[in-house]
Specification:
By secondary structure, the chain is α/β, with parallel strands linked by helices. Residues 198-204 have low confidence and may be disordered. The termini are far apart. It has 2 domains: 4-175, no CATH class; 212-489, no CATH class. Strands 13-12-11-10-9-8-14-17-18 form a 9-stranded parallel β-sheet. The protein has 19 helices and 18 strands.
C-alpha cells in the first residue's frame, strides 16, 4: 500500500502520474509478474517472473551496494569536469540507482521515467520519496501511451539547457531489450532536436524578438489559420506538403492533376513553391517561417503579381516579405514568439494555438496540418537525401542543386523508401529524425510519403503518388478561394485584452526598475 506521505507528494507535484496509478487496473499488464522480495542483506528488491524464470531488477544480495558501485564508477570515469547539466533516469525499480546517482552528482537536477506503472507503485509502497533530493526532481512520468510519452519528452526537451547523463536501470536493458531500444532511439532524437533548437535559439533569440515586435500589427490584420472557423475548410480532407527535394520533378504532372481536380489541398513549403510555379501550378497555400530574409523565395510570386496564393507565415518570420507580397496572408503563432503569446487571445478568452519551432518549414507545416485536422498528410519532394547527384530540385535560382565534392565526402547511407540505401548528410538526417519525432506525436493519424528514392521516414508509409491518387484522392475536396471565407469568418483578437496586458507590462517595467535601483544601492 502506498504511504500517505508518498501519495501526497505525487498528488501535489505530479497529478498526471497519480491518475495513471489510479487507472493501473485498466492498463494492459506487463508481460510477466513483478513482486517485492528480500535480498540476502535484508533490503527489499524487486523480481520479475518471465517465461517461468525469475529475474531480479536489483541485486539479490545487496542492491544498495550494487547501485553505489555503478554510480561511483561512472562518476570516476567522467571526472569533475564532466559537463553534464541534467540526470535522466530510465527505470525506477526500487530507486536504488536514483539515490546513488543523485548522491554522486549532487548538483544536477534530475528527471525520472518508469516504463511500467506497476513497478512505480511497488516503489511508492516500499520506499519513502523523502530520501531523494525532491527539490531537484524536475520531471516524472510513468509509461501510459506512446502519445503521452512523446508529450513528456517534448516538455523535457523544451526545458533542456545542456547535456544530459542518461542512466538506465541495467535490468531493463536485459529484460525488455526492444522496449529499451525504442525509447532510447526516441530519446536520442529528442536530444538531437533539442540541441539544434538550443543552437538556433542562441543564434536567433534577438531576431525572433525583433521580428515578433515588427510583425505584431500584421497579426492583428490577418486571420489566424488555426481559428476554429478556418479549420473546418480542412478537417478530414487530404493535403500535400510539397518540398524542394530533387524527386519533386517526377511528380509534377500528378500534382498538376491533383490541383486541376481539387483532389487535395497543396501546401508548398519554403522553396518548394518554385518547382510548382515553374510548371504553372499555384499551390493552395505557401508556408514560411524563417526569421531571416524570405523575399528571394517568393520573388516569382512578387514579380508576376500573383494574388491567388495565400501566404501562411509563422509569427516570428522575417518581416521583409510583407510589403511586397501581393496575395492574401494568414498567420500561425510560433512558440518562439513571446510577444504574441503575451498579448493575444480571442474575444471568447481562448488563447491561440501554438506551433512548435522546428528545423524545417516542412515540420512546421506538418504540425499545422495535423492541428487543422487534415487526413491524410501526404509528403512530396521530401527526399531528406541525395538523388542522382542532386540535393535540391532544379530550377531554384538561389540554390546550386548539385552535390559538391565536399558534401559527397561527408555523406553516409541510410535506409530508403524501398528498403535499400541512399546517401544523406548529417543535416538532412537530423531533419528526418525530427520529422519522425513530430509524426510520433500524432498517433492514429495517417502520414504518407510519396517521395521516390527518398530516405525512409518512420511513421509515414511509402506509397507512390499515383497509388495515393487512386486509393485516397478520388473526389474534389478543395474549396476554391477558401481564404476569402476564412478572412470573413475568422475570430479577431481581443483589443481590450491587449490594452490590459500592455498596462500590466508597463507596471512590471516600473517594478523592475525599482528592484534594479535597490540592487545597485545594496551592492
Amino acid at each position: 500500500m502506498i504511504s500517505t506521505e508518498n501519495a501526497d507528494i505525487i498528488k501535489t507535484r505530479f497529478p498526471g502520474v497519480w491518475q495513471a496509478l489510479e487507472e493501473l487496473d485498466e492498463l494492459p499488464a506487463t508481460s510477466g509478474l513483478f513482486a517485492i522480495t528480500t535480498a540476502k542483506n535484508g533490503q527489499p528488491t524487486l523480481s520479475l517472473t518471465k517465461d517461468d524464470k525469475t529475474y531480479y531488477l536489483h541485486s539479490a544480495y545487496n542492491p544498495e551496494e550494487e547501485a553505489g558501485r555503478l554510480a561511483a564508477r561512472i562518476r570516476e570515469e567522467l571526472g569533475e569536469a564532466h559537463g553534464y547539466k541534467h540526470l535522466f533516469f530510465y527505470g525506477v525499480g526500487l530507486g536504488y540507482q536514483i539515490e546513488a546517482f543523485t548522491r554522486a552528482f549532487p548538483d544536477l537536477p534530475f528527471t525520472v521515467y518508469e516504463p511500467h506503472p506497476e513497478v512505480f507503485r511497488y516503489y511508492l509502497a516500499t520506499k519513502p520519496l523523502s530520501v531523494l533530493p525532491l527539490q531537484d526532481l524536475e520531471g516524472l512520468h510513468v509509461g501510459q501511451s506512446p502519445a503521452a510519452t512523446a508529450r513528456f519528452l517534448a516538455e523535457y526537451a523544451a526545458r533542456l539547457q545542456g547535456e544530459t547523463l542518461f542512466v538506465a536501470l541495467p535490468a531493463y536493458e536485459r529484460l525488455f531489450p526492444e522496449e529499451f531500444k525504442e525509447f532510447a532511439a526516441v530519446f536520442r532524437d529528442v536530444l538531437a532536436g533539442a540541441r539544434t533548437a538550443l543552437r538556433t535559439t542562441y543564434a536567433y533569440e534577438k531576431k525572433w524578438t525583433l521580428n515578433s515586435l515588427a510583425n505584431f500589427q500584421q497579426l492583428l490584420k490577418t486571420p489566424n489559420i488555426l481559428d476554429n472557423t478556418v479549420k473546418k475548410h480542412f478537417h478530414g480532407k487530404p493535403a500535400l506538403i510539397v518540398a524542394a527535394g530533387p524527386s519533386v520533378h517526377e511528380e509534377i504532372e500528378k500534382i498538376r492533376y491533383i490541383k486541376e481536380n481539387g483532389l487535395a489541398y497543396i501546401f508548398s513549403v519554403g522553396s518548394g513553391i518554385n518547382p510548382l510555379l515553374n510548371a504553372g501550378i499555384h499551390p493552395d497555400a505557401a508556408c514560411t517561417y524563417d526569421p531571416k530574409k524570405n523575399i528571394f523565395v517568393f520573388r516569382k510570386v512578387i514579380d508576376k503579381k500573383i494574388t491567388t496564393i495565400p501566404l501562411v507565415f509563422g509569427s516570428s518570420v522575417g518581416p521583409d516579405i510583407f510589403p511586397d507580397y501581393p496575395g492574401p496572408m494568414l498567420h500561425m503563432i510560433m512558440d518562439q514568439d513571446t510577444v504574441a503569446r503575451f498579448f493575444l487571445r480571442f474575444a471568447n478568452a481562448e488563447e491561440p494555438e501554438i506551433i512548435q519551432d522546428a528545423p524545417t518549414i516542412a515540420i512546421v507545416t506538418l504540425q499545422l496540418l495535423a492541428k487543422l485536422g487534415v487526413e491524410p498528410v501526404i509528403f512530396a519532394g521530401q527526399n531528406l537525401a541525395y538523388k542522382d547527384g542532386l540535393v535540391y530540385a532544379e530550377g531554384i535560382p538561389y540554390y546550386n542543386p548539385k552535390l559538391t565534392e565536399k558534401k559527397q565526402k561527408a555523406a553516409f547511407l541510410v535506409e530508403d523508401v524501398y528498403g535499400g540505401q541512399v546517401y544523406t548528410n548529417e543535416g538532412l538526417d537530423m531533419m528526418r529524425r525530427n520529422m519522425e519525432y513530430f509524426i510520433s506525436r500524432y498517433p492514429g493519424r495517417e502520414f504518407i510519403n510519396t517521395t521516390k528514392g527518398g530516405a525512409k521516414i518512420k511513421g509515414a508509409a511509402f506509397q507512390p503518388l499515383e497509388q495515393v491518387i487512386k486509393e485516397h484522392l478520388t473526389t474534389c475536396v478543395v474549396e476554391k478561394d477558401w481564404w476569402v471565407r476564412a478572412t470573413e469568418t475568422a475570430a479577431v483578437y481581443d483589443r481590450g485584452y491587449i490594452r490590459r496586458q500592455l498596462a500590466r507590462m508597463n507596471g512590471e517595467l516600473v517594478e523592475m526598475k525599482g528592484l534594479l535601483r535597490k540592487f545597485e544601492e545594496n551592492f
